[in-house]
């Protein structure tokens, strides 16, 4: 089978200290058939100096630079994905501060082709400090990647995602609706939409990149941002994120499988019930997190009115 051309979507904002290493790791990919699309969200550091120098040093590479909407990371990725050139394309998301393993793209393509060809790929990451010293590794999830999980947990890390044309076409078709609802995270939207529509997720147990943990990460790893995550839950920010996701998914319900439409509307009904110890257990309607502790936390949040 002919090797596909991959459009790498890299969104930047004030990534000057780290972006050069990411650009060099993209250049070092064993899968060399790619176009690099960079959407800069109004950086005021030297990010564009690095990008411009990289493009000038590699005139043989197809590197496209566009201006982002200036409305945050999720909106930047979604606006880039909405470009008509990407409607039916192989797409890989990239963050500005990671470093890819040399075979990241090649491994993703091979694993997608070994399956049905209509799957989305993600992989584990090696957590590092700002200087790329390893400090941990992302979880190797044991429960299924499914719609019931996606409703309450974002585990499809956007910086690892690679998508074949069928998946990209589905996602681009949903963009007008989800942009109106202001979904909080592009990778969470991807996870919910693709599983809701019945696509499978390949989660590679082998890490595909070095994932820096530093003060500018939006959330980062569970361990390095545990206090921030707890505050998000207690301030009901998480519940507000779920609100926005559910509104978007309700608009998109025609693309969901019949079973997943049932899960969605059962979940909406469950959230509307008064907070009490007697509420239906979320897992009984097909909603779950990736651990027993996570399931228990869902029940506790429901009793506290935080979900």
From TrEMBL:
UniProt-listed InterPro entries: Glyco_trans_2-like, Glycosyltransf_2, Nucleotide-diphossugar_trans
Pfam (any one): Glycos_transf_2
Similarity comment: family membership: Belongs to the glycosyltransferase 2 family.
Molecular functions per Gene Ontology: glycosyltransferase activity
Source taxon at top rank: Bacteria
Signal peptide residues on this chain, from the entry's feature table: none
Glycosyltransferase 2-like domain mapped to chain residues: 8-136
Protein name stated in the entry: Glycosyl transferase family 2
Keywords for this protein: Glycosyltransferase, Transferase
